[in-house]
Amino acid sequence: MKLSEVAEKLSCRLEGDPNAEVTGISGMDHASGGQITFLANRRYFPLLHTTRATAIFIEDGIRIERDPGLPPLAALRSNNPYLAFIAAQKSAITFLPTRTPWFANTAASAIASFCKMV
């Protein structure tokens, strides 16, 4: 799936290559090319320099700086990057890995309640 399609489905603002192909999602330290990750806790900010992900769900106002030699990291800007990451996992987007995420059995109403609190 193209990154532009992901941005559209999840209502994120895309900064980067709209034609980049996305094949899965992962945490910042485990992501590889073709995967999307997220930054919701500034404690993990240093991983922005080294993650191998193709794109990242990230808040507005955070500048992405990369280590020399690494490919660019596209930004999917969202008010709540973690929630966007969860929405990507919970949705029927076809690039998702076949592995069942830890929250697969979480009721949609519980996630909706969380969204209202945020």
Describe this structure in words.
The chain is α/β, with parallel strands linked by helices. The protein has a single domain (3-117), classed as Udp-n-acetylmuramoylalanyl-d-glutamate--2,6- Diaminopimelate Ligase, Chain: A, domain 1. The protein has three helices and five strands; from the N terminus they run αβββββαα. It has helices at 3-9, 81-90, 108-117; strands at 13-15, 24-25, 35-38, 55-58, 74-77. Strands 1-5-4-3-2 form a five-stranded mixed beta sheet, with helices on one face. The longest helix is centred in the C-terminal third of the chain and has 10 residues, at 81-90. It is globular, with a radius of gyration of 14 Å. Mean pLDDT is 81; it is low at 96-100.
Give the SSE map:
Layout: H1 3-9, E1 13-15, E2 24-25, E3 35-38, E4 55-58, E5 74-77, H2 81-90, H3 108-117
Parallel strand pairs: 2-3, 3-4, 4-5
Antiparallel strand pairs: 1-5
Run of helices and strands: HEEEEEHH
- Regarding quaternary structure, what we see is single chain
User: What gap, in angstroms, lies between the N and C termini?
Assistant: 29 Å
Strand order of the largest sheet: 1-5-4-3-2
CA gyration radius, whole angstroms: 14 Å
Look at the structure and give the mean pLDDT.
81
Query: Could you say how many structural domains there are in total?
Result: 1
User: What is the tally of beta strands?
Assistant: 5
Per the CATH scheme, the topology name is Udp-n-acetylmuramoylalanyl-d-glutamate--2,6- Diaminopimelate Ligase, Chain: A, domain 1
Measured as a percent range, the helix fraction is 10-25%
Please give the CATH class: Alpha Beta
Describe the main β-sheet briefly. 5 strands, mixed
Strand residues, percent: 5-15%
What do we call the CATH homologous superfamily? Answer: MurE/MurF, N-terminal domain
Query: What structural category do the secondary elements indicate?
Result: alpha/beta
